[in-house]
Amino acid sequence: MLPTSAELMRFAPELVLSILGTLLMVLEPLTGDERGEKPSLRLLALAGLGVALVAAILALGDPGPAFNGMLQVDGYGGFFRALVIVVGILTVLAAESYLRREKHETGEFYALIVFSIAGQCVMVTANELIVLFIGLEISSISSYILAGFLRDDKRANESALKYFLLGSFATGFLLYGIAWIYGLTGSTNLQTIQQTLAGGSVNSVLVGLAAALMFVGFSFKVSAAPFQIWAPDVYQGAPAPVSAFLSAGPKAAAFAMFARV
């Protein structure tokens, strides 16, 4: 039942990001200069993301399944892992002057970025629909908070509320589709589902309905028409670095999981 060293190495980027996010939250009340800025936490976030990027590259040296096949580390997942981490690094760099100007440079901002990236890394390597859903929720919950990070800005509050309500609604469709697929095939593992469907013993109409439900959830995350209606309001109201992050990192991870499924 214990993971092997190879499995831990394949999961190393997520471990680094989880530890980094927790450390940023713990150090938040203990750091800051006379102006209330957090340059040390910004540097720590950049350093930690750099370590996670190196870990993602090193994990490709020994690809394969991890944790009883729940994760699949391969070139496909490795590319998107590296991509979302690079997007996170660029977001932290871009947010420096913006947060200073808005007087909202806190450790929570960097921690939320890191946790969102951790969820995206789980999304792109997930080989189980339930694990995929967990990664999606880790990324989404952090994104909801980031959208409304400027608490005194009414546009940011509106942005976060719309994103949360519509995102939760779309996620319900995705989870219902996953439940249908499990009921039809008896598994949430993508390889097992593929083999069961290839056997031709499953009602194709019900499979199509389940796929349609999942399609709603995926389409919302990638802003595919007609499920893109949330994007303009959220991007307009969210802080500028957050809008840049939402339009790149979560989108890349969503496209990755969409194509894998």
Structure commentary:
Helix 2 runs antiparallel to helix 3 (39-59), helix 4 (75-102) packs antiparallel against helix 12 and helix 6 (129-147) packs antiparallel against helix 7. The mean pLDDT is 90. This protein has twelve helices and two strands, in the order αααββααααααααα. The protein is 75% helix and 2% strand. Strands 1-2 form a two-stranded antiparallel sheet. It has helices at 5-10, 12-27, 39-59, 75-102, 107-125, 129-147, 154-185, 190-198, 204-222, 231-237, 240-246, 249-260, and strands at residues 64-66, 71-73. It has 261 residues and is mainly α.
Look at the helices and sheets and give the structural class: mainly alpha
Shape: globular
Radius of gyration, in angstroms, nearest whole number: 19 Å
What does the largest sheet look like? 2 strands, antiparallel
Total number of beta strands: 2
Strand content: under 5%
Helix content: over 70%
Strand/helix succession: HHHEEHHHHHHHHH
Which tags fit this structure?
single chain; 261 residues; mainly alpha; 2% strand
